[in-house]
Specification:
This protein is mainly alpha-helical. It has 1 helix and no strands.
């Protein structure tokens, strides 16, 4: 039983890490895209 809980905890930590990494990646991509669009449109960056 102890091992089961250990594995569940590890899985939860891993999925949290993956979710956070995914969010950071998506945020970076969005910011990059917004920056490119602004540069193309000639809108000054704030």
């Amino acid at each position: 039983m102890k091992n089961l809980f250990k594995n569940l905890g590890h899985m939860a930590a891993t999925s949290n890490f993956v979710l956070l990494s995914g969010r950071l990646l998506i945020t970076n991509v969005i910011q990059d895209t917004v920056t490119k669009i602004k540069k193309r449109s000639g809108i000054p960056l704030v």
